[in-house]
């Protein structure tokens, strides 16, 4: 686990000497002499960044280092060196070096091309324009230009980063003139105006900004460095920034300048102001900053006790990567630059990723080395023994023909023979395999890029593979880590419905992007009708020039019917929308002169923007803020409210309130928040309204909408004045300020009048829920890592199918390490025994996955071990566990009626979902607690991490990747996701609205989250199958060729003679057998594309490593050894006993003839073998076979016949003229391939895998004759095509089964009874089985996929297929998602039943463990309804949320407030919003 935190240490690498230390930045003041080191001022990181892996100087050495991480490349480099030693050389060194040189050069070109894209992105960022204070202004923290420039040869490599921009003047104070040291301004500058566009400011580039520079930003500018805000265009020094590149949130965040600098609104004041800024060391905490500013009066040179010290917090810091919004200009001083900025500290180094198969192939290459060593050792020892015999062939031959070797001692001869045989047997490790892999992956990447199903027309974006070597990893992903905002959601909130005084308003109309075929036009048409009707009703009552009818989503004319009446309901409607229009922190954008009635709202949350926008469209318009005045227009009448106080939202309060004074002098408190909080604060005698509102909110929440309650109360002057005095004292408290402020606020937020509630929909990207459901069926676990609040993340989890009402949510929220440990242990104590490890490495894959399930008590041993490591005592553990007993003592459900409380309980048997916030995660990722977090997380179906920083995202990915040894994929769209994307095995960037940082750092770039479905389930699965098949066949063919040479040594007394001509050895991998494995790697596919998406359970074979393992590798090696023996001995003995003769009468059994026939047999057998392993036959594979064999014939005849050279001594003219040679080739091929064919037939007939059965279904539907025969026989048995195919006597064993060699009696047909105790292993069982009625003998009609924009004939989940396969797609969808009638009478899905049977057989073996994998049940999508009818609900369908910190259980409210304000310690909070001060 210590490796988990190397990223945290690495984040600061590369920074200058100033990194890791507190710093003092001097503005218009000289740097003290004691701050200089060896005559140089403090060194800070330049603002030039580099995310590229290589530079001009490091490209070659780094690439060579990467290449020689491959064991095979090191081996061939060693062989190349041997070729230059005459005593052991057997060939031409130049020819041997060509292959290695080609591999390295091609790979370097590919890596250089990929990295050039990152370099281009770096140049674009570094050369972005910036504006700094100019006209000779001197930055006291920046060395002069002559100090920056190096001397000598290094000057040629010097980058001018930081040399431009401001003037450097970092010299000791003693060397400065007296006027400069005193801070007297000597130049005439503008005063009273910031001077936008004047020569007071100098244009520069981001890379030239230095610590201490004063930077000017305009509205819409990106922040180039971490700046301390000095002043802004607002009088109080406030501004708003957008931080979507930092935390993924598009809402605005308010920043404030320190009180002592807010007046610096002109260049003259900036030059005259002298201060020293003390800052903490650079760190990764986005939401934390500690520092102080000391204003230096004239005459005071250094910051000493005489200077006033004002504290600084994160509210005063503008972070690099954020964007200035709704503020004309701001001025700030650079505190952190370059790699010391918080966003760069959170971004790790660009990694060099290798696929899992490539890493595993290294182990296989090492095993081949071992085999090679054994072959060479045997050859050397036996050669030495034969050489020691005086009458042996070796001794006589060497004495006569190789006199240079004569007289050697047998040990020396054996030693040299070892190295010679190493060269002879070198083909056992195929060097051309790497070239073929690179070529195949390049073509696979091209296919992915050209896939029209992953093309996003609105943005004209295709899938872009940026790393060509990871395509096979896409087929083995077990964990996906996803960002939320912009990745799963569009971050668009739509106000749908509301309840006012017990009456529901709002008609839900289906939108055009997700309708089925029947409502594709009816939904938008109905919405247009309602909008026109509402516009007409508004025109009859009042004029609303601010209404934006084309975008409003709240549609109901009944609202204006009630509003136009003189009734209590009309007054309630006015009160309701008054709260929405006034109780918020929204600001308005700059008005458009061409359209003054169009108001755009900028909110700290899209929730609040939706609420205020809906109030505007209804007629209650928030116009603008003017300091503490809120200007509104209600029903066409202007209204002005004076905002007296704003009680902001926090996660503990779950509510927001404002206190305002009306024009008539009355004081009102307006409040909105979660229903569980508001209901317990309403005044008595509102039981009927309370009950009706709860019923409505319950219905809204059950339909996936986010809810909140509204209330208000009137205050008299005396009560407000007394409260205000207490509130001011609490704000000024130096003790527990937050607790005191909360207590004062809680006192006044009582006796509320309940008005009603709202329902908001968070718009997801198209196809997100279906994609997540499909990935879950494929065995992929999804974790959401977001910077949003806990409530927001939970709501999105429900919207996108990550969470459902059957789950038990467990929330970890702790303030320190001890509390975090407490809560993790409590969760394991309560849920550890009831929930098994769901990961593959923990045995969650079942028996067929080959990994035994973990013992149920593993978590107990882990807790004991962590306590022993931490030094905890038994008494401590007893006290911690004692807290579990009282979980019912503090159930905060007083607002929930008694009949509903039964649903709010901790369900220990329900699937788990873990929710943990960033504060708790900070402690949970420490080495002593990380195992506890991982042990709990792997037992959960879903995990949500909230309020996490970019670095925490990367650490979570590393925790799972290293802790479980599994393959992880990370997907995100913003700069805050870069570190997570780089840390994952596969990084996917979504090209959205948040810039290109995530895309540039990713391995694959897509436009929509739903494209992951085809990228993984189709392309990933295909690539995995293709690459594994190609590699295994490549090793096989080289073993056949090499071991044939070894068998031949028996008949030449181990003299290391070549059975084949050296030209054949050289061209064997290059020409004769290169195309078939390449065709396997590029074009082979077991099933059509759409089938991989319809039956996602097939993907699990990649997770379980069933297609590529050491066992399968050695099976291919054994097959190769067998075939080499057949070829060598059959050819040798055939010629030995042959009576054939040449035309001249001589015996034909010569070495050249034997080698020629043997080479033909090897090439013919290996090519046919690889063709047999092809799953889909097209014209390309036969063409590859013809080309390979044709090239062999061409080489023989061109060089052996036409040119009559010494090539094989003319063996071709003799061999091909004899009929027995042709017969021998045919016999050898049959003898080699027949066992393999029989094994394949037996396995597919008696032990079929999941893929085999689905292939049979596809074949049955596509073959008319085959389908008619199946349907005829199936009808006779009263079952469907698949049921007949899979219940026939030759289909006893289920899919994916490895033969277990049990006695014949165990393979008899089982009884047709229920199998209640079976657990599926290769799990086509993650769906609900439909039990047919006992009275009905006809199977149910197969369910079809829900028709919408992504599902229609010819399109399934956005994946195209021929419309003739519509019946096949519907049938497979029914089998994989809904269940089918079974002749077993148990209603089980047929795929589920067959998978379970082998699980039962495997689990019945002694010592076998059964997996406890829990599948997610999926529900079919239904068409959106026209509206929601209210009916009293007595049983809560909400999920209960179990809070581990206090053991309480709360209902899921569905609403998450916008901005969570966390006062920083020591930072004074002024009453009311900043713009109201």
From TrEMBL:
Binding site for Mg(2+): 483, 485, 973, 977
Gene Ontology MF, one: ATPase-coupled intramembrane lipid transporter activity
Positions annotated to bind ATP: 483-485, 608, 649, 672, 706, 786-788, 947, 953, 976-977
Span of domain P-type ATPase A: 199-255
Topological type in the membrane: Multi-pass membrane protein
A Pfam cross-reference name: PhoLip_ATPase_C
Protein name: Phospholipid-transporting ATPase
Swiss-Prot/TrEMBL cofactor(s): Mg(2+)
């Amino acid at each position: 686990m210590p490796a988990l935190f190397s990223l945290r240490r690495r984040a600061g690498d590369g920074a200058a000497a100033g990194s890791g230390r507190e710093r003092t930045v001097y503005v218009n003041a000289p740097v003290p002499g004691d701050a200089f080191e060896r005559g140089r001022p403090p060194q800070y990181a330049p603002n030039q960044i580099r995310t590229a892996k290589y530079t001009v100087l490091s490209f070659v050495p780094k690439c060579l280092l990467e290449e020689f991480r491959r064991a095979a490349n090191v081996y061939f480099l060693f062989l190349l060196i041997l070729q230059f030693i005459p005593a052991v050389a057997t060939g031409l060194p130049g020819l041997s070096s060509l292959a290695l040189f080609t591999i390295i050069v091609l790979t370097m070109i590919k890596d250089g091309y990929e990295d050039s894209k990152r370099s281009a992105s770096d140049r674009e960022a570094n050369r972005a324009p910036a504006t700094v204070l100019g006209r000779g202004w001197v930055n006291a923290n920046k060395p002069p230009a002559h100090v920056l420039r190096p001397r000598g040869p290094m000057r040629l490599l010097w980058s001018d980063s930081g040399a431009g921009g401001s003037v450097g003047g970092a010299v000791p104070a003693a060397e400065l003139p007296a006027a400069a040291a005193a801070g007297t301004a000597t130049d005439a500058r503008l005063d009273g105006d910031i001077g936008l566009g004047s020569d007071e400011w100098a244009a520069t580039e981001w890379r030239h900004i230095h610590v201490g520079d004063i930077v000017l930003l305009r509205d819409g500018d990106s922040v180039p460095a971490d700046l301390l805000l000095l002043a802004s265009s607002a009088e109080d020094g406030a501004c708003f920034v957008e931080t979507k590149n930092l935390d993924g949130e598009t809402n605005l965040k308010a920043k404030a300048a320190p009180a002592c600098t807010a007046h610096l609104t002109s260049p003259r004041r900036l030059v005259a102001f002298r201060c020293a800024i003390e800052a903490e060391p650079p760190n990764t905490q986005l939401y934390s900053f500690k520092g102080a500013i000391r204003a230096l009066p004239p005459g005071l040179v250094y910051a000493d006790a005489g200077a006033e010290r004002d504290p600084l917090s994160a509210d005063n810091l503008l972070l690099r990567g954020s964007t200035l919004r709704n503020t004309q200009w701001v001025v700030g001083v650079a505190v952190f630059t370059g790699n010391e900025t918080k966003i760069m500290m959170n971004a790790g180094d660009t990694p060099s990723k290798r696929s899992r198969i490539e890493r595993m192939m290294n182990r296989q290459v090492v095993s081949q080395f071992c085999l090679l060593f054994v072959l060479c050792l045997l050859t050397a020892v036996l050669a030495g023994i034969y050489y020691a015999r005086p009458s042996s062939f070796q001794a006589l031959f060497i004495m006569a023909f190789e006199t240079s070797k004569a007289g050697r001692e047998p040990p020396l001869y054996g030693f040299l023979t070892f190295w010679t045989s190493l060269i002879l047997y070198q083909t056992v490790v195929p060097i051309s395999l790497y070239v073929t892999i690179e070529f195949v992956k390049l073509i696979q990447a091209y296919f992915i890029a050209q896939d029209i199903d992953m093309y996003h027309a609105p943005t004209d974006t295709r899938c872009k593979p940026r790393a060509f070597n990871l395509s096979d990893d896409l087929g083995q992903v077990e964990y996906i880590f996803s960002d939320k905002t912009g990745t799963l959601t569009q971050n668009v909130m739509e106000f749908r419905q509301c309840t006012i005084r017990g009456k529901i308003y709002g008609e839900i109309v289906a939108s055009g992007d997700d309708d089925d075929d029947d409502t594709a036009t009816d939904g938008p048409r109905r919405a247009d009708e309602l909008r026109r009707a509402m516009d007409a009703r508004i025109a009859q009552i009042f004029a609303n020039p601010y209404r934006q009818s084309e975008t409003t989503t709240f549609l109901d004319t009944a609202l204006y019917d009630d509003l136009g009446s003189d009734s209590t309901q009309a007054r309630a409607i006015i009160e309701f929308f008054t709260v929405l229009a006034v109780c918020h922190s929204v600001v308005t954008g700059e008005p458009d002169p061409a359209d003054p009635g169009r108001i755009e709202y900028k909110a700290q949350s899209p929730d609040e923007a939706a609420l205020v926008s809906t109030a505007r469209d209804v007629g209650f318009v928030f116009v603008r803020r003017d300091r503490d005045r809120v200007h509104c227009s209600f029903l066409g009448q202007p209204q002005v409210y004076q905002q007296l106080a704003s009680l902001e939202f926090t996660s503990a309060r779950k509510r927001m309130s404002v206190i305002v004074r009306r024009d008539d002098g009355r004081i009102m408190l307006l409040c909105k928040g979660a229903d569980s909080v508001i209901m317990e604060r309403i005044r008595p005698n509102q039981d009927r309204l309370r009950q009706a509102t709860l019923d409505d909110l319950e219905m809204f929440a059950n339909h996936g909408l986010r809810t909140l309650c509204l209330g208000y109360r009137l205050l008299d002057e005396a009560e407000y004045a007394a409260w205000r005095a207490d509130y001011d004292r609490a704000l000024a408290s130096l003790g527990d300020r937050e607790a005191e402020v909360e207590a004062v606020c809680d006192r006044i937020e009582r006796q509320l009048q309940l008005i009603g509630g709202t329902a908001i929909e968070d718009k997801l990207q198209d196809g997100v829920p279906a994609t997540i459901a499909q990935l879950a069926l494929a065995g992929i676990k999804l974790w959401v890592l977001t910077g949003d609040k806990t409530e927001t993340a939970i709501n999105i989890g429900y919207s996108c199918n990550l969470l459902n009402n059957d789950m038990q949510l467990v929330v970890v929220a702790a303030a320190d390490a001890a509390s975090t440990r407490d809560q993790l242990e409590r969760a394991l104590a309560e849920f550890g025994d009831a929930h098994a490890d769901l990961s593959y490495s923990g045995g969650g894959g079942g028996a067929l996955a080959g990994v035994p399930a973990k013992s149920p008590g593993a978590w107990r041993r882990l807790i004991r071990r962590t306590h022993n490591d931490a030094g905890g005592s038994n008494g401590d553990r007893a006290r911690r566990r004692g807290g579990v007993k009282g979980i019912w003592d503090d159930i905060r459900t007083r607002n929930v009626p008694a009949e509903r409380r039964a649903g709010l309980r901790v369900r220990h048997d329900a699937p788990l979902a873990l929710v943990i916030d960033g504060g708790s995660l900070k402690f949970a990722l420490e080495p002593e607690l990380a195992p506890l977090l991982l042990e709990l997380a792997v037992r959960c179906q879903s995990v949500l991490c909230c309020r996490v920083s970019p670095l925490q995202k990367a650490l979570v990915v590393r925790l799972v990747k290293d802790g479980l040894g599994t393959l992880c994929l990370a997907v995100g769209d913003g700069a805050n996701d870069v570190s997570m994307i780089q840390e994952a095995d596969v990084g996917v960037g979504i090209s959205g609205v948040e810039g290109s940082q995530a895309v540039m750092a990713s391995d694959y770039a897509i436009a929509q989250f739903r494209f992951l479905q085809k990228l993984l389930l189709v392309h990933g699965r295909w690539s995995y199958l293709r690459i594994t098949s190609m590699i295994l066949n490549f090793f096989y063919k080289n073993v056949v060729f090499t071991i044939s040479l070894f068998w031949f040594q028996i008949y030449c007394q181990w003299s290391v003679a070549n059975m084949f001509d050296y030209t054949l050895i050289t061209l064997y991998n290059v020409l004769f057998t290169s195309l078939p494995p390449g065709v396997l790697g590029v074009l082979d596919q077991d099933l059509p594309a759409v089938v991989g998406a319809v039956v996602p359970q097939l993907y699990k074979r990649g997770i379980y490593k069933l297609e590529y393992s050491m066992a399968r590798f050695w099976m291919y090696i054994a097959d190769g050894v067998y075939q080499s023996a057949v070829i060598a001995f059959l050819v040798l003995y055939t010629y030995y006993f042959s009576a054939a003769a040449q035309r001249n009468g001589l015996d034909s059994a010569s070495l050249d003839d034997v080698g020629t026939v043997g080479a033909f047999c090897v090439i013919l057998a290996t090519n046919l073998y690889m063709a047999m392993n092809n799953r889909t036959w097209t014209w390309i594979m036969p063409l590859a076979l013809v080309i390979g064999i044709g090239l062999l014939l061409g080489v023989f005849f061109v060089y052996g016949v036409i040119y009559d050279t010494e090539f094989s001594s003319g063996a071709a003219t003799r061999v091909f003229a004899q009929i027995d040679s042709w017969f021998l080739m045919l016999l050898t091929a049959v003898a080699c391939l027949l066992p393999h064919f029989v094994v394949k037939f037996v396995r597919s007939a008696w032990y079929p895998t999941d893929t085999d059965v689905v292939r049979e279904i596809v074949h049955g539907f596509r073959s008319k004759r085959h389908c008619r025969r199946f349907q005829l026989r199936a009808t006779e048995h009263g079952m469907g095509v698949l049921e007949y195919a899979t219940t026939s006597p030759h289909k006893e064993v289920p899919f994916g089964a490895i033969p277990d060699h049990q006695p014949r009696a165990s393979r008899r047909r089982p009884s047709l009874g229920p199998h209640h105790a079976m657990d599926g292993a290769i799990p086509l069982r993650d769906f609900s089985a439909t039990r047919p009625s006992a009275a009905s003998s006809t199977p149910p009609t197969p369910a079809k996929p829900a028709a919408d924009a992504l599902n229609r004939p010819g399109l399934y989940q956005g994946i195209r297929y021929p419309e003739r396969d519509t019946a096949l797609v519907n049938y497979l969808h029914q089998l994989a998602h809904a269940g089918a009638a079974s002749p077993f009478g148990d209603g089980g899905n047929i795929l589920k039943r067959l998978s379970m049977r082998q699980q039962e057989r495997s689990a019945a073996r002694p010592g076998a463990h059964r997996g406890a994998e829990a599948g997610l049940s999926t529900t079919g999508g239904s068409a959106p309804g026209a509206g929601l009818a209210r009916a009293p609900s007595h049983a809560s369908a909400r999920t209960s949320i179990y809070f581990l910190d206090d053991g309480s259980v709360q209902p899921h409210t569905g609403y998450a407030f916008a901005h969570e304000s966390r006062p920083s310690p020591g930072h004074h909070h002024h009453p009311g919003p900043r713009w109201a001060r």
